[in-house]
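Colleagues,

Please find the record for the two-part complex below.
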Amino acid sequence: MSSSSHFLRGARTSPTRRAVLAAGVAVAFAPTVRARTSRTLTVAAFPLVDQIVKDAIPQWAQRHPDVGINIVMRQYDDHHTAMTTALSTAVYLPDVMALESSYVGKFSNGGGLSDLLQPRYDIGRHRARYVEYAYNQAINRKGQVVAAPTDIGPGTFLYRADILERAGVTAADMQRSWDAYVDGGIRIKKATGANLIGNVKTLKDIMIRSGLQAGQGIYFDSDSNVLVDTPRFHRAFELALRARRNGLEGRLATWSNEWAEAFRRGVTSTELGGSWMVGQLANWVAPVTAGKWRAAQLPESTWVSYGGTYYAIPRDSDPELKALAWELVEMMTLDTGRQLAALKTQDAFPALLSAQDDATFDQPSEFLGGQHARVLWREAARHITATAVHKQSNFAEDAVNAELDNVLDDGKDIKQALADAAKLLQLRAKR
Amino acid sequence: MKLPDFLRLSPKWAPYVFISPFVLLFVVFSVFPLCFSLYLAFQSWEPTGGLRAMEFVGFSNFAFALKDSWFWMSLKNTLWLAVASGVPQHLVALPLAAFIHTSFKRLRDGVIAVYFLPYITSTVAIAIMFGSLFSKDYGVINATLASLFGMEHVDWLTNSVHIKPAIAFIVFWRYVGFNTVLYLAAMQTIPGELYEAATLDGASRLRQFFHITLPSIKPMIFFGVTLSVIGGLQLFEEPFILTGGKGGPQQAAMTSAVYLFREAFDFNDFGGASAMSWLLFLVVALLTWITNIAFRTRKGATQ
């Protein structure tokens, strides 16, 4: 307050209008002046990640009592739109931004994120400490590493043990192949009336992510050739159609109220997704079903990653705070204690290998009926390979989903549907 | 109290100072974006690379937009919704205005207010309300249809065939009151003697409507239809919110405005989106011009 009171005193000695106005201006700017003397790191994040960073503030305050952390939280979509805008104009850039893995891919080649291989960050020396695919996922075409992984989502197969038992189906039967998975669904439906899955789109989404060669994208290869009209997609579409024709799905929009209700009532007997889905089910979707679920590896030994979170440092953020920003990123991603805290409170599966070797990992999960499921996911995480994310992957996802709807709802021929999707993507591949 | 000289506005500058707030806002939020989007339409831009990542590409964004089947599909969706929501608006608003004009005396303002209310309600609130009204299993609309006609539950918002009529209905509901107010205002300017004379001559109310009311308010109909054409072609909020910003099942509710928003912010292609927005502008201008021709008084026709 020293600067503003000085101005006010000046105003009292010669009360001109100008001086009063100047005092007003000084008062308005005073907080900014103060903020500069004690520095603040701005972290932009979306829900749950913001909480994880918030939980880390006490530890940070011990290291840097003079550097505050200001967390700017926005909802998932808004956050990524805001980050796109901030990067495009280089205005209101945070010092650290949280990014979901698909956005890391999309932003990686734009040049708006700092290359963390630079000597001042030197993330390269920590490479072996991260889950391999999570680190590789952040490498762009120029070989730069644009973000540090903090949590990952190894794909998992969740099933209601009680319903499967009533139907006389074992998880091992269903894990044998994707066809066996749908066969199991038919038997479950017949014996219990329960649906195999809430929405067959989920089945298609997991299947198109499986069997990718390292460095290949889901929809495009590294030379932007379209990969949609391939056996991988044909098979996913065929199985989705088979599940739909046998009435194995609830036709519910994922995350909708009806979708959640179906879990609560035991109408949905299995789910495919990232390991974080267990936390979602346990916390809000269907806590009443605790103890009835089990986890297993995905059918056909499919190793896929389903989401994950990274921290990035914008290229054009305040240069004086970059070292501190990196220190925070290091603390969030390389400190075993922090990674385990995020696992405990928010079910964020650690991207740090040493955290995965912690005793916490052998603790049983109550929601999964005492199963030691984290060990499964740790194994899955070591099999997953990085997937290249193409600039047009968001569009590709939409185009493929629209064609799947055409197939499922209007009986469009699968060959034709995928050929049409491929044609649509061809036009944009090199844009 | 006399102000010191440096704070006094000279009459020469006063007008400019007084209009400056509007001009400033207009320049920042209308002129600049307009010019910037025209500039962007000729650039290829990876937005996360910052402003320096732009690259001049001539007309290739326009060529891409014209070849893009989703752009054409979005135009078709837009036209469908504009017609299906716009035509009923006027067909209902005209007789409704005439009815209110002739049948209500003291209650008139209250009745108009009720019809006008949807127009001034927030689109977000409307979309959320209709989202639950149209809900498949728990919605009031399906419950009513089922009890009246024994119809099965219709999946209004998750089926590509049903979502268009659902949205057209919301847009119709929202703007019918606005058009009614327009027509009512126009009807109040028609001299009462015309109707008295017509009544004396034995003209029925229907004849009076077609031969006195309609011709007299033709300029207002032109105005109302023009607004509907422009508004219908720029339809954005209702489909955007009802479909969670994604365009709905099989993109059936993706209007051109929704598509070009997605092209920029979901698909990161600001150049393509800008080119599409200028193409959409051409379509709007063309259809407005056609409306103008349709309403022009033909040579030899009497007023």
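Chain A has 19 helices and eight strands.

Comments are welcome before we finalize the supplementary table.
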